[in-house]
Amino acid sequence: MPTGIVSTGWPAVRDTCTKMGVTFDRWQDGLGRGILAKRKDGLYAAGIGGIIISICRQVGKTYTIGAIIFALCIIFPRLTVIWTAHHSRTSDETFESLQSFARRKKVKPYIRRIRRANGQQQIIFANGSRILFGARENGFGRGFAGVDVVVMDEFQILTNKALEDMIPATNAAPNPLIIGMGTPPRPVDPGEAFRTRRNEALEIKRRNAAGDPVECEMLYLEVGADPDADLDDWGQVEKANPSHPHRVPRQSILRVRKNLADDDSYRREGLGIWDDDRDTARAIPEARWAEGETFAAPDTAPAYGISFSADGMRMALGAAKTDGARMFLEQLDADEGAIDDGMVKLADWFAAKDENGVPRWRRSRGIFISGSAHAPTFKQLLRRRKVLEKWITVLNTPQVMAACQTLDNELKAKTILHPEEGQERLDASIAVATKMPRSKDGGWTWGALTPDGDETPTEAISFALWGARISKLTGRMPGSGRGGGIL
Ligand SMILES: Nc1ncnc2c1ncn2[C@@H]1O[C@H](COP(=O)(O)OP(=O)(O)OP(=O)(O)O)[C@@H](O)[C@H]1O
Ligand SMILES: [Mg+2]
């Protein structure tokens, strides 16, 4: 959502729609409220960054946005709207469907006339407002001036350059609205404008989640099924399509599926799934990760791994324990958050004593840390809490690369176990883990495939694993007979 919202133009538009006989479902009502949200100065809050909608086929895009545009045209005399699609076929279809809407008994009185001439499809309202339709593949959309609202359908087929060519059309408008909507781009589509805007939105979302909110001038809506959805699961269709089944019946969905070339196309167009989020690009296949799931953890001394993200916004704590042969890895921290607070709390956690007065770090096989400037800072916090030097390892770059490689190797060798439940952050991190090249000789470290992905949990368990493999510490107190490590 854009920031700085104090009001919305929605109630007036909704009431006008009611008069036209249009009622909205809840998601449509929320979307309309967001699109027309305003800041203190009375301008649309998403007026600068635009409204970007990623949604599958047959949800009600044309219906929803069409009704909103009609209402705006009725409320604001002399409003000019251009509605473009990439393909002329889509543009013609939209014109047809809005034209029949314009002929409805309750809508007709507001309409002066409809022009159908090819290349000049227009709906002209009695108050001088008008909607012009055309296809971008025919050059429509460029060179306009004095436009108040631009709607771009098939937003997945639009380069940044083409987008830049269209925006000046609204330069003179007192309160412009720009709406881009489409399905996730195919690999062959010039989807860069869509992808750029989506990544921007995800970055803002990530910053907000990390407690570092930023100014936002766009509205981004994405609806879709889970990236790994079973294509025959109707529950996933319901997740992707808020109009199914009550507005859009099974047959419509099946028709979409039948008309598409393959499963990947259906994933994008039928279920709204972005290729970017899918398994094909992940370094650790889901099946390989799932193989190591277990409910039993060995009762041996852990090695700990801690990773800080380069920007210092995220951190993760992992532990590795061995049953002699295999290595049991888990993510221990539950909460992300402000690093200062997190670091101090974490250092205290290591210093905390058990019932025998033995601090936690002493029962471990070492603490293995990496992550720019934060690793030495954390080491200092530990040292101030009397953690012995030989328990603390700050990994250098070759060691970080070795640790990441170790996790990859051991997963392939099936020597890794991890908890089946309660590891949402780690599981999510593994799902987007990718190998980021770091050196000319093939060295790499873990990164995330998606802009809001978090590599730190995967790194943390890699450091713990590597530490457990090299540590000579046992974590066993002399004579206590407790917490014994096997190695
Ligand atoms: N609030 C609503 N009231 C009545 N009908 C609705 C509503 N929302 C959606 N629909 C119906 O849902 C169906 C799909 O809507 P629409 O054609 O706008 O979808 P779309 O997302 O533009 O599809 P496509 O991707 O095929 O262009 C239509 O039959 C439309 O009338
Ligand atoms: Mg449509």
UniProtKB/TrEMBL annotation:
It comes from the Bacteria. InterPro entries: P-loop_NTPase. Gene3D superfamilies: P-loop containing nucleotide triphosphate hydrolases. The keyword Transmembrane helix applies. The chain crosses the membrane at residues 66-85. Keywords: Membrane, Transmembrane, Transmembrane helix. This is Terminase. It comes from Leucobacter muris.
